[in-house]
Specification:
Largest sheet: 6 strands, mixed
Distance between the termini: 62 Å
Strand order of the largest sheet: 1-6-5-4-2-3
Helix content: 25-40%
Number of strands: 6
Order of helices and strands: HEEHEHHHEEEH
Oligomer: single chain
Length: 220
Protein backbone atom coordinates (compact mmCIF):
# COMPACT_ATOMS: atom_id res chain seq x y z
CA UNK A 1 0.00 0.00 0.00
CA UNK A 2 2.80 2.42 0.87
CA UNK A 3 4.56 1.71 -2.43
CA UNK A 4 1.36 2.32 -4.37
CA UNK A 5 0.84 5.64 -2.63
CA UNK A 6 4.38 6.67 -3.39
CA UNK A 7 3.93 5.79 -7.06
CA UNK A 8 0.71 7.81 -7.19
CA UNK A 9 2.36 10.79 -5.53
CA UNK A 10 5.18 10.57 -8.05
CA UNK A 11 2.78 10.53 -10.99
CA UNK A 12 0.84 13.51 -9.64
CA UNK A 13 4.07 15.42 -9.08
CA UNK A 14 5.19 14.78 -12.66
CA UNK A 15 1.85 15.91 -14.08
CA UNK A 16 1.81 19.08 -11.98
CA UNK A 17 5.30 19.91 -13.16
CA UNK A 18 4.34 19.39 -16.79
CA UNK A 19 1.22 21.54 -16.49
CA UNK A 20 3.34 24.32 -15.01
CA UNK A 21 5.78 23.99 -17.90
CA UNK A 22 3.09 23.76 -20.59
CA UNK A 23 3.04 27.42 -21.53
CA UNK A 24 3.29 29.60 -24.58
CA UNK A 25 4.88 32.91 -25.53
CA UNK A 26 3.05 35.45 -27.66
CA UNK A 27 4.56 38.43 -29.48
CA UNK A 28 2.17 41.10 -30.78
CA UNK A 29 3.26 43.79 -33.22
CA UNK A 30 1.14 46.62 -34.62
CA UNK A 31 1.75 49.26 -37.25
CA UNK A 32 -0.91 51.97 -37.47
CA UNK A 33 -0.84 54.15 -40.57
CA UNK A 34 -4.01 56.11 -39.86
CA UNK A 35 -6.30 56.37 -36.80
CA UNK A 36 -9.48 54.31 -37.13
CA UNK A 37 -12.50 56.61 -36.91
CA UNK A 38 -15.60 54.68 -35.96
CA UNK A 39 -18.84 55.22 -34.08
CA UNK A 40 -21.73 53.18 -32.75
CA UNK A 41 -23.46 53.21 -36.14
CA UNK A 42 -20.53 51.53 -37.87
CA UNK A 43 -19.66 47.86 -38.13
CA UNK A 44 -16.52 45.85 -38.81
CA UNK A 45 -16.22 42.36 -40.22
CA UNK A 46 -13.41 39.88 -39.57
CA UNK A 47 -12.62 37.81 -42.66
CA UNK A 48 -10.17 35.03 -43.43
CA UNK A 49 -8.22 35.57 -46.63
CA UNK A 50 -10.26 33.67 -49.22
CA UNK A 51 -8.41 32.54 -52.32
CA UNK A 52 -8.57 29.48 -54.54
CA UNK A 53 -4.78 29.63 -54.86
CA UNK A 54 -3.65 30.28 -51.30
CA UNK A 55 -4.49 27.97 -48.43
CA UNK A 56 -7.53 29.21 -46.56
CA UNK A 57 -7.05 30.30 -42.99
CA UNK A 58 -8.71 28.27 -40.24
CA UNK A 59 -12.30 29.32 -39.70
CA UNK A 60 -11.99 28.69 -35.94
CA UNK A 61 -9.37 31.40 -35.64
CA UNK A 62 -11.52 33.92 -37.51
CA UNK A 63 -14.49 33.17 -35.26
CA UNK A 64 -12.28 33.48 -32.19
CA UNK A 65 -11.02 36.94 -33.15
CA UNK A 66 -14.54 38.07 -34.02
CA UNK A 67 -15.99 36.84 -30.72
CA UNK A 68 -13.20 38.45 -28.68
CA UNK A 69 -13.74 41.76 -30.45
CA UNK A 70 -17.50 41.54 -29.89
CA UNK A 71 -17.07 40.97 -26.16
CA UNK A 72 -15.20 44.22 -25.66
CA UNK A 73 -16.48 46.38 -28.51
CA UNK A 74 -18.02 49.50 -26.98
CA UNK A 75 -18.33 51.72 -30.04
CA UNK A 76 -18.91 49.38 -32.98
CA UNK A 77 -20.62 46.16 -34.05
CA UNK A 78 -18.80 43.05 -35.33
CA UNK A 79 -20.55 41.25 -38.20
CA UNK A 80 -19.97 37.46 -38.08
CA UNK A 81 -17.96 36.27 -41.07
CA UNK A 82 -20.45 33.61 -42.14
CA UNK A 83 -23.35 36.08 -41.99
CA UNK A 84 -21.44 38.63 -44.05
CA UNK A 85 -20.18 36.21 -46.72
CA UNK A 86 -23.64 34.68 -47.16
CA UNK A 87 -25.29 38.09 -47.34
CA UNK A 88 -22.74 39.38 -49.87
CA UNK A 89 -22.90 36.30 -52.10
CA UNK A 90 -21.17 35.84 -54.51
CA UNK A 91 -18.79 38.76 -54.05
CA UNK A 92 -16.74 37.35 -51.16
CA UNK A 93 -16.42 33.75 -52.29
CA UNK A 94 -13.00 32.24 -52.99
CA UNK A 95 -12.89 33.28 -56.63
CA UNK A 96 -14.31 36.79 -56.25
CA UNK A 97 -13.13 38.17 -52.88
CA UNK A 98 -10.79 41.18 -53.13
CA UNK A 99 -7.13 40.43 -52.43
CA UNK A 100 -5.95 44.03 -52.09
CA UNK A 101 -7.20 47.59 -51.76
CA UNK A 102 -7.28 48.04 -55.53
CA UNK A 103 -9.60 45.06 -55.94
CA UNK A 104 -11.80 46.37 -53.14
CA UNK A 105 -12.03 49.74 -54.88
CA UNK A 106 -13.35 48.04 -58.02
CA UNK A 107 -15.80 45.92 -56.04
CA UNK A 108 -17.42 48.82 -54.18
CA UNK A 109 -18.35 50.49 -57.46
CA UNK A 110 -20.90 47.76 -58.18
CA UNK A 111 -24.38 49.08 -57.22
CA UNK A 112 -25.52 45.79 -55.68
CA UNK A 113 -22.37 45.64 -53.53
CA UNK A 114 -22.84 49.24 -52.41
CA UNK A 115 -26.39 48.51 -51.32
CA UNK A 116 -25.46 45.38 -49.37
CA UNK A 117 -22.54 47.08 -47.63
CA UNK A 118 -24.84 49.92 -46.59
CA UNK A 119 -27.25 47.38 -45.14
CA UNK A 120 -24.46 45.83 -43.06
CA UNK A 121 -23.09 49.32 -42.22
CA UNK A 122 -19.56 47.98 -42.61
CA UNK A 123 -16.84 50.63 -42.27
CA UNK A 124 -13.79 48.40 -41.81
CA UNK A 125 -12.67 45.02 -43.10
CA UNK A 126 -10.24 43.04 -40.97
CA UNK A 127 -8.49 40.60 -43.30
CA UNK A 128 -6.50 37.85 -41.56
CA UNK A 129 -3.89 35.50 -43.00
CA UNK A 130 -1.79 32.93 -41.17
CA UNK A 131 -1.50 29.39 -39.89
CA UNK A 132 -1.00 27.11 -36.91
CA UNK A 133 1.36 24.18 -37.28
CA UNK A 134 3.02 21.43 -35.24
CA UNK A 135 6.80 21.02 -35.33
CA UNK A 136 9.64 19.21 -33.57
CA UNK A 137 7.89 16.05 -32.41
CA UNK A 138 9.85 13.92 -29.92
CA UNK A 139 9.30 10.91 -27.68
CA UNK A 140 7.51 7.62 -28.10
CA UNK A 141 4.38 5.89 -26.86
CA UNK A 142 3.15 2.30 -26.98
CA UNK A 143 -0.23 0.79 -26.17
CA UNK A 144 -1.07 -2.85 -25.54
CA UNK A 145 -4.10 -4.96 -24.63
CA UNK A 146 -3.84 -8.17 -22.64
CA UNK A 147 -6.00 -10.61 -20.66
CA UNK A 148 -5.81 -8.39 -17.61
CA UNK A 149 -6.62 -5.17 -19.46
CA UNK A 150 -4.66 -2.65 -21.45
CA UNK A 151 -2.92 0.65 -21.27
CA UNK A 152 -0.48 3.05 -22.85
CA UNK A 153 3.00 3.96 -21.65
CA UNK A 154 5.39 6.60 -22.90
CA UNK A 155 6.00 10.28 -23.22
CA UNK A 156 5.72 12.59 -26.25
CA UNK A 157 6.35 16.27 -26.79
CA UNK A 158 5.92 18.62 -29.72
CA UNK A 159 6.18 22.31 -30.46
CA UNK A 160 3.24 24.38 -31.70
CA UNK A 161 3.53 27.63 -33.60
CA UNK A 162 0.80 30.11 -34.54
CA UNK A 163 1.53 33.02 -36.86
CA UNK A 164 -1.18 35.42 -38.06
CA UNK A 165 -1.41 38.91 -39.52
CA UNK A 166 -4.46 41.16 -39.71
CA UNK A 167 -4.83 43.98 -42.25
CA UNK A 168 -7.45 46.56 -41.32
CA UNK A 169 -8.98 48.14 -44.42
CA UNK A 170 -10.87 51.42 -44.30
CA UNK A 171 -13.80 50.90 -46.66
CA UNK A 172 -14.72 54.58 -46.83
CA UNK A 173 -11.26 55.88 -47.73
CA UNK A 174 -9.94 52.68 -49.36
CA UNK A 175 -6.79 52.69 -47.25
CA UNK A 176 -4.96 50.27 -45.00
CA UNK A 177 -5.46 51.66 -41.50
CA UNK A 178 -3.25 49.22 -39.59
CA UNK A 179 -1.48 45.89 -39.60
CA UNK A 180 -1.44 43.68 -36.51
CA UNK A 181 0.63 40.50 -36.26
CA UNK A 182 0.57 37.79 -33.59
CA UNK A 183 3.14 35.02 -33.19
CA UNK A 184 2.81 32.39 -30.48
CA UNK A 185 5.13 29.48 -29.70
CA UNK A 186 4.61 26.75 -27.12
CA UNK A 187 5.39 23.16 -26.22
CA UNK A 188 2.76 20.49 -25.66
CA UNK A 189 3.23 17.27 -23.68
CA UNK A 190 1.50 13.91 -23.65
CA UNK A 191 2.52 11.56 -20.84
CA UNK A 192 0.88 8.15 -20.86
CA UNK A 193 0.60 6.13 -17.67
CA UNK A 194 -2.15 3.69 -18.63
CA UNK A 195 -4.09 6.56 -20.24
CA UNK A 196 -2.61 9.29 -22.49
CA UNK A 197 -3.04 12.74 -20.93
CA UNK A 198 -2.57 15.59 -23.43
CA UNK A 199 -1.24 18.81 -21.90
CA UNK A 200 -1.60 21.28 -24.74
CA UNK A 201 -0.06 24.69 -25.31
CA UNK A 202 -3.02 26.73 -26.57
CA UNK A 203 -1.02 28.71 -29.10
CA UNK A 204 -3.92 29.49 -31.43
CA UNK A 205 -6.10 30.71 -28.57
CA UNK A 206 -3.27 32.87 -27.20
CA UNK A 207 -2.60 34.37 -30.64
CA UNK A 208 -6.32 35.05 -31.10
CA UNK A 209 -6.73 36.84 -27.77
CA UNK A 210 -3.55 38.86 -28.24
CA UNK A 211 -4.51 39.93 -31.75
CA UNK A 212 -8.08 40.85 -30.78
CA UNK A 213 -6.85 42.93 -27.85
CA UNK A 214 -4.43 44.84 -30.07
CA UNK A 215 -7.07 45.44 -32.76
CA UNK A 216 -9.34 46.97 -30.09
CA UNK A 217 -6.66 49.58 -29.37
CA UNK A 218 -6.59 50.53 -33.06
CA UNK A 219 -10.31 51.36 -32.98
CA UNK A 220 -10.00 53.34 -29.77
Amino acid sequence: MVNNLRKTDCIVTILVALVAGCSSTTVIDAHVTKPALIDSQDAVVVLGRRSSIEQEIERDFIKCVGKNLSKHAENFYVVPEETFVDGMYPYFENSTAPLDIRDLGKLVKIPEVIQKLQEFKVRYFIWIVGFTERTDENGAMSCAVGPGGGGCFGFATWSDEASYEAHIWDLENLQITAKVSAETQGTSYMPAIFVPIPLLARVQSSACQGMAKQIQTVFR
